[in-house]
Amino acid sequence: MKDYYYFLGIKPNASEDEIKKAYRKLSFKYHPDKNENDEFFTERFREIQEAYETLIDAERRKIYDQSYGQFQRSYKSVLPPKIKNFNASTIRAKKGDEITIYWQTYDADFVKITPFGLEKSQGERKFRIKEFDKEGKFQIILHATNTFLHKTAVQGITISEILNDEKLEKNTEFVTPKTSSETISKRKKQSKKWFVFLMLLIIAALAIYFSEK
Which residues of 98-108 are buried (b: 16+ CB within 10 A; e: fewer)? Predict the structure, then answer.
């Protein structure tokens, strides 16, 4: 059974004004028209609408609270939530690169991944980074919550931006040793040639010297 209070980010004793305020904020954020009709945002928008329509009606809210209370007592795990794994296909990327994150949780009835929103207890998601923060980082945070116990396990991933000068520096490091090695090899060959030439001059001079005697 869905936790509508969690969907709207409000407490079970939230007032009508608080419900409306939360709905306006989230519906604006997840509206499909503002997110290129992305399937994920469309689904979240539907859940937010469903939660709002249930909680804003006093009679429907009362019935929901009773049903959800029974559900919590009957079906909720009594174990604290755990994150078995949470990783990304890469932790270094450029703007526009496609990245895939993978996660698996246990004993969590709601899973939220910032900045994306609510997700299933396990799965994967592909996305592209549009912007990094001022330090060249992109943070992804997984919250696995057991709402019956009111406990949350948290784990994060940091994606670092690859800069253009960093790539240039790597290329320079690769080319420089090769050029330097070739230069040293040429100098060695030239030195050998000069050494042989000098030895021949010395031998010729000695031959002339002894022949005159």
Answer: ebebebbbbbb
Higher pLDDT, 52 or 41: 52
Cα separation of 115 and 119, whole Å?
Answer: 11
C-beta neighbour count of 5 within 10 angstroms: 20
Cβ atoms within 10 Å, residue 205? 10
**pLDDT attached to residue 211:** 63
Partnered with residue 118 across adjacent β-strands are: 112
Residue 71 CA, chain-centre distance (Å), reads 35
Question: Is the backbone of residue 173 left (phi > 0), alpha (psi -120 to 50) or beta?
Answer: alpha
Question: How large is the C-alpha radius of gyration of the chain?
Answer: 34
- Whole-structure pTM over 0.85, yes or no? no
- Residues 59-110: pLDDT tens digits? 999 999 888 777 766 666 778 999 999 999 999 999 999 999 999 998 888 8
